[in-house]
Write a structure and sequence with these properties.
The chain is mainly α and 930 residues long. Among the domains are: 173 residues, Rossmann fold (3-Layer(aba) Sandwich), CATH 3.40.50; 57 residues, no CATH class; 108 residues, no CATH class; 57 residues, Arc Repressor Mutant, subunit A. It is built from 47 helices and 7 strands. Strands 2-3-4-1-5 form a 5-stranded parallel sheet, sandwiched between helices. A two-stranded antiparallel sheet has the order 6-7. 56% of the residues are buried. One of its GO terms (biological process) is regulation of DNA-templated transcription.
Length: 930
């Protein structure tokens, strides 16, 4: 019987019951060693005969083996892999070593989600993951990915994890329950059940005080106490330390065994397969027979069940292993390695040999290289990093050591371990003497710096690396020269410069399409840096056409990102939307989580100007979730800043809370890399918009001036341009016509240099506003300027900016007594503001309409406005003829969740069939939240 856990049992029972009724749920049960986590899980599921239970357990010795725990969990249902979409099935089989090829970890996560929902087709599923703090990282990532995306699915996931361990397991977004110590009444009941004598209250209270009510300690410690101590007739020992005390009890029990049985125990705790035959074979190699195995089982420290062997408790494992000498451990690991080689388990065998190694060993190093390569192909990047780093530790040659440290760093970066990657790169750079190896080290150093470090450092690293490698590998040099130039064009200048002839950008018949595109992009960026934006735009569009005409370039995520970055900086809305979307969709298809995060941090630029604010919210929320899942807290700043700006625009009640969270985050984890300046600008823009929409033009102007001053080192930064109409409005509203005129003059220069429709539109709007309020000589041209702005907006597709022009023009026309003409502009503005939920401007446009003599009624909103972003996404994909399973694969959710959202779409829109969705006028689907 389980004592003192009624509340926790009820919580787990409710979770399982929710799964029975088709609603997914999850929980992490936390507690110190011996708190009864495993016992709680057993008790909670003891009567759940109507659910399918899938189990796995984290093993400390198994942590370098990618997907080992996930394989154990899914082993009973592996026949369901055949039902998965082909890319998911392949990814999972590669992860489990059943097929060759490569698998990105995020695609394995999607496949895990699909497996759980397929397993739940016939009956509810409960996944039990014990000792989650010892999960191999690849399994943990895949399981958490799936757990967070379960929704309308009959699946419950229960993790159990130890507190106060070096490896913590406290995932964001998963509810937790903490097992505290038992209360006095529960302790007395537990002792009565397990102790042969009556324990008086004063003794049980002392045991509670000494053990903190820890159930395992209360069961195990009395076994080393005399009956006199337990019944109170003799004093208890002065101290009964919890963990060390229990470990000491287990170790004492082990030491009472014969030497052969103690050898069996050491082999068993060093083993990471749980297969009895492996332990028996390894023990036999050490001269120990089956009688010793039976003795260990009789002691209760080892549990045999069929062909499996389990150590009594993790504290037994740590006690026995830590007490063994280094020589004894190495002998056990060598024996296990030989046993595992005998059954073809080469990766585990290699890790055991690595644990047994006490010096350089080239054969072992080569084997570790192969283990790392296999783990990387399977998407087990942390495991791959571990293997390559251990191989480097055992390598003598400096050049070879540096190469292995670079391999470890690449995998550490891919898994989100930025600090570890940087440390490994620093070590590799100290040893590398080959220019190509140095270039590859610096390429990764620069990539880390531009995303999560100093953008100026990134510029310097890329520039110097391009200079140093140009004579040895022109294409490598070209790639890094492009990266440096993109940073420089954004105003990030470390002072480092490439020699004029370092990079050959001339056309060569031997150039691949990718190389030709890179050269064109470099030429464009250099023109931009020189101030010739018109020529830069022309050359950029040539590069874009080269990219779109060649398949290999469209798979190059770095190139897609740089084409989009250049387009964003030059103000080419359509191009940066297209190439960021291409990058995001390609990264999703590949399951490349870090590239997905990179793209999600940047697609909001195009979603904002394009009026796709629901998609912007989804992208930003997904970016936050994804960044947290890989431990990059600072990377959540940019998406949180976008969400804060949206809250300001929409007048949401959570604006103040979002701003406070953002500012606290920035204070604790300052944003880094190339997005540091945009976070600062977005925050100031949000404050300015909040003030402007509240009628405080002077307050808005204050924030816009600070934004302009902060951005001054950057050449026409994107956010300053995107906020151009807001800035002019604030300056005019605050009667600072000098500032307004200066900002309009900046726009005129840009318009002359780019000929972009939105720039012409913003320039004409600025002229209209300054002429209307400050420039008496230009007053007669106000209608013409507003009309010019709207004519350019017709080609620009910036709905919010266009509506601001329509509102301003409508106000001007009404004041000029042209009420009929005013209504046309005001109605159009009102419609857009309603669609975008800009409530302050909805009220302002409605008020102006009423003043023009028209009763302003809110139009009947489209039924599409009632749909959530996910419902819109599902409806759009289904309208293209995709099945629920195909939609699920694109959205990274389960088919059941797709069906749930589709039912909601039918209910809200009145549509009764999938075929009718095509008539709803749905836009292209936008990214959805994680």
């Amino acid at each position: 019987m389980l004592h003192g856990r009624d509340v926790e049992l009820a919580r787990l029972a409710a979770l399982v019951d929710d799964a029975r009724h088709g609603t997914a749920g999850s929980v992490v049960v936390h507690g110190e060693p011996g708190a009864g986590k495993s016992a709680l899980l057993r008790e909670a599921l003891s009567s759940a005969d109507d659910v399918r239970v899938l189990r796995t357990q984290g093993l400390e010795s198994e942590s370098p083996l990618a997907f080992a725990a996930l394989h154990r969990l899914l082993r009973p249902v592996l026949d369901l892999v055949a039902r998965l979409p082909a890319p998911q099935a392949h990814a999972l089989r590669v992860a489990f070593g059943q097929e060759t090829g490569t698998a990105e970890p995020f695609l394995v996560g999607v496949a895990t989600l699909s497996m759980l929902t397929e397993a739940a087709e016939d009956q509810p599923v409960v996944c039990v993951v014990d000792d989650a703090h010892w999960l191999d990282s690849a399994s943990a990532d895949a399981l958490l990915f799936a757990t967070r995306r379960l929704d309308a699915d009959p699946v419950a996931v229960v993790f159990a994890a130890r507190d106060s361990d070096a490896r913590t397991f406290a995932p964001d977004g998963v509810p937790s329950v903490r097992l505290s110590g038992l209360d006095a009444a529960s302790v007395r009941a537990l002792l009565a059940e397990n102790v042969p004598v009556a324990v008086p209250i004063q003794v049980s209270d002392r045991l509670v005080a000494e053990t903190g009510g820890n159930p395992l300690a209360l069961v195990e410690l009395p076994t080393v106490l005399s009956e006199a101590q337990l019944d109170g007739s003799a004093a208890l020992p002065p101290q009964l330390l919890l963990t060390s005390g229990v470990e000491r009890v287990f170790l004492d029990r082990c030491r009472r065994l014969s030497d052969p049985a103690q050898t069996v125990m050491l082999v068993a705790v060093a083993d990471d397969t749980g297969r009895l035959i492996d332990v028996q074979v390894a023990a036999a190699a050490l001269g120990v027979g089956p009688d010793a195995v039976a003795e260990a089982e009789r002691s209760g420290l080892l549990v045999l069940s069929g062909d499996t062997v389990t150590v009594r408790h993790p504290l037994v494992r740590s006690a026995v292993y830590q007490a063994a000498t280094g020589l004894e451990r190495r002998r056990a690991h060598r024996a296990l390695a030989d046993a595992l080689d005998g059954v073809g388990d080469s990766d585990r065998a290699t890790w055991h040999r690595a644990a047994a190694a006490d010096g350089p060993d080239e054969n072992l190093v080569a084997a570790l290289d192969q283990v790392g390569a296999r783990a990387g192909r399977r998407g087990g990047y942390r495991a791959a990093a571990d293997a390559h780093e251990r191989a480097a530790d055992l390598t003598v040659d400096p050049h070879a050591k540096a190469g292995r440290q670079l391999a470890a760093a690449r995998n550490a970066w891919a898994s989100g371990q930025t600090a570890r990657a940087s440390t490994l790169l620093g070590a590799a750079r100290e040893r590398a003497d080959d220019p190509l190896l140095l270039a590859d080290v610096d390429r990764l150093r620069g990539r880390i710096a531009v995303n999560l470090g100093s953008a100026a450092d990134a510029h310097r690293i890329f520039t110097r690396a391009a200079e140093q490698v140009a004579a040895h590998d022109p294409v490598r040099a070209l790639e890094m020269a492009v990266a440096a130039a993109i940073a420089h064009s954004h105003g990030i200048d470390s002072g480092a410069r490439l020699g004029a002839e370092t990079i050959d950008v001339g056309v060569s018949p031997h150039d691949t399409p990718r190389t030709r595109c890179l050269k064109q992009l470099l030429v464009s960026t250099r023109l931009d840096i020189a101030g010739d934006r018109a020529a830069a735009l022309r050359e950029l569009r040539i590069a874009q056409q080269t990219a779109l005409g060649a398949g290999d370039t469209l798979a190059d995520l770095d190139l897609l990102g740089n084409l989009a970055n250049a387009a964003l900086h030059l103000g080419d809305d359509e191009s940066h939307r297209r190439f960021y979307a291409l990058m995001l969709s390609t990264a999703r298809e590949n399951g490349d989580g870090m590239a997905v995060l990179y793209a999600l941090q940047r697609v909001p630029f195009s979603q904002y100007v394009g009026g796709q604010w629901a998609a912007l919210r989804n992208s930003s929320e997904e970016a936050v979730t994804l960044a947290l899942s890989v431990g990059q807290v600072a990377a959540t700043a940019a998406p949180r800043a976008w969400l804060t700006l949206l809250a300001a625009l929409e007048g949401r009640p959570d604006y103040d809370e979002r701003l406070a969270v953002l500012e606290d985050l920035v204070a604790a984890h300052p944003p880094v890399g190339i997005l540091a300046q945009p976070v600062e600008d977005l925050t100031r823009w949000a404050k300015a918009v909040r003030a402007l929409l509240a009628g405080d033009a002077a307050g808005a102007l204050h924030h816009f001036r600070r934004m302009a001053a902060a951005s001054r080192p950057m050449q026409l930064p994107a956010l300053m341009l995107m906020s151009a109409q807001d800035r002019v409005d604030a300056a005019v509203g605050a009667d600072d016509h000098t500032q307004a005129a200066a900002w309009v003059a900046d726009l005129e220069v840009l318009a002359a240099g780019t000929d972009l429709p939105w720039v012409h539109a913003a320039t004409a709007f600025g002229r209209a506003r300054t002429s209307e309020h400050g420039d008496a000589s230009g007053g007669d041209r106000v209608p013409e300027l507003f009309e010019t702005s709207l004519a350019h907006h017709a080609a620009a597709h910036r709905p919010y900016d266009r509506a601001r022009v329509q509102l301003g023009y409508g106000q001007y026309l009404r004041r000029s007594q042209r009420r009929v003409d005013a209504r046309i502009q005001l109605r159009a503005a009102l419609d857009t503001f309603e669609d975008l939920h800009v409530e302050a401007l909805v009220e302002r446009a409605a008020q102006e309409l009423r003043a023009s003599g028209e009763s302003a009624r809110r139009r009947d909103p489209s039924t599409l406005l009632d749909l959530t972003p996910m419902e819109l996404k599902v409806a759009a994909l289904v309208s293209q003829g995709l099945s629920n399973k195909d939609v699920a694969a694109q959205c990274w959710v389960s088919p059941r969740t797709v069906a749930f959202h589709l039912r909601n779409v039918f209910t809200k829109t009145g549509v009764t069939s999938r075929g009718e969705l095509v008539h709803l006028g749905l836009d292209d689907p936008a990214p959805v939240p994680a």
